[in-house]
């Protein structure tokens, strides 16, 4: 009897220990399940979505700053380009102004030659012949310029450059433009570099006899104008 009781006691004690170990293992498993479940819940799609939304909000908040920076950069470029354009426009305006002044000065020179060719001239009655009404000599007359080069020989061919420049000198001395001029005669005046021409103003009918002389590299220069009767 005694041995049987001891055997039962030992078996009961073993079962109790086995149940205790089993309960401990079950508890550990439950704890692990809770931990894993909590971890899964923390990383759930909903929470991930919330995190993504939060990140998007932050990016959206920063975006205007970036846009402002780009806008500011564009404005700087526009301002710089505007400054360059303004500078270029100013230079163009100055250049145009200088051209206008040059043209105005040239126009003034032309007017001084054509409007009043006898200003400052010495005018005397009569002249080299009885057909001369008065004689005009102007010390301010200058050569009219030339496109010719090299040694000069007077040419009385109406199609030549020399003929064209002779008429320019006569027009300069009398104030009669070439398109308002009828050439009556143009030829030699006694020297290889001296010429004389007789012309008539188409509009007024005034007649002039003009003596001119060649100045090397400067062209024909008037020396005397006689207004004919």
TrEMBL record:
Q: Where are the transmembrane segments?
A: 20-42
Q: Short name of one Pfam family for this protein?
A: DUF1510
Give the start-end ranges of region Disordered: 46-159
Annotated Polar residues bias: 146-159
What are the protein's UniProt keywords?
A: Membrane, Transmembrane, Transmembrane helix
Q: Which residues form the DUF1510 domain?
A: 136-228
- Per UniProt, the ranges with Basic and acidic residues bias are 71-116
Q: What is this protein called?
A: DUF1510 domain-containing protein
Source organism lineage? Bacteria, Bacillati, Bacillota, Bacilli, Bacillales
């Amino acid at each position: 009897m005694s041995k049987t009781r001891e055997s039962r006691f030992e078996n009961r004690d073993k079962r109790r220990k086995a149940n205790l170990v089993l309960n401990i293992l079950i508890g550990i498993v439950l704890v692990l399940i809770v931990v894993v479940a909590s971890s899964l819940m923390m990383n759930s799609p909903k929470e991930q979505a919330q995190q993504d939304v939060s990140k998007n909000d932050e990016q959206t908040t920063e975006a205007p700053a970036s846009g402002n920076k780009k806008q500011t950069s564009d404005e700087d470029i526009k301002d710089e380009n505007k400054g360059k354009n303004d500078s270029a426009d100013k230079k163009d305006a100055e250049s145009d102004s200088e051209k206008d002044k040059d043209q105005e000065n040239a126009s003034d020179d032309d007017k001084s030659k054509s409007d009043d060719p006898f200003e400052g001239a010495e005018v005397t009655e009569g002249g080299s012949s009885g057909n001369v009404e008065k004689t005009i000599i102007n010390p301010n007359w200058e050569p009219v310029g030339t496109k010719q080069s090299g040694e000069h020989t007077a040419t009385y061919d109406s199609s030549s450059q020399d003929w064209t420049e002779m008429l320019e000198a006569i027009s300069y001395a009398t104030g009669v433009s070439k398109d308002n001029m009828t050439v009556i005669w143009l030829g030699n005046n006694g020297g290889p570099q001296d010429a004389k021409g007789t012309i008539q103003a188409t509009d007024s009918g005034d007649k002039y006899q003009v003596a001119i002389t060649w100045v090397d590299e400067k062209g024909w220069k008037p020396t005397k104008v006689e207004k004919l009767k």
